[in-house]
């Protein structure tokens, strides 16, 4: 497989974290459900949670303040949500097996990689350390560290800058519509792997260079490597 990897000499790969590398959304849902319950909101459902997939924690909480009339200051809500989430994340976060293989193959081939996530830096670091992905992924950007979260391109552009890569030479892997929009706004190629597969027809995914409509069930490390090595550009659907 690595024989064709020379085609990746000028390619850098940037990963979203939640829902792309790891199945952390159940933990985010539970942390959010607990927080809202503490504030008297007891009817928050998984379907409600799905509408916020791909949006940074801080921006999600700002929307909750409006929707649910939360009176606590945003920094206090953010600290509480992150505390609850980290407790859950440290106890159990699952890496998608084919994603782990993909990261390992890229690392072995010397391909520069970064993580650009809407999560806080402590959350990113805790998940990468707890799953062992920190052995391969050491360049990190949190949406908390840039002016605007996804769908703005800020986190991806910051990651490219840290890698010393031109945006046009970067490929982003994303599971959510805001992230796909952010990748294209950054001038990067995008592999879209919808976490909520029912959202595969979202117009935000239309410009993805590779759309895996079946989500993680469809993703394989080998196919992704073959696609990268081929230097494919332009929308492709599976």
TrEMBL record:
InterPro entries: HAD-like_sf, HAD-SF_hydro_IA, HAD_sf, PGP-like_dom2. GO terms for molecular function: hydrolase activity. It comes from the Bacteria. The keyword Hydrolase applies. Keywords: Hydrolase. CDD domains: HAD_BPGM-like. This is Hydrolase. It comes from Streptomyces lasiicapitis.
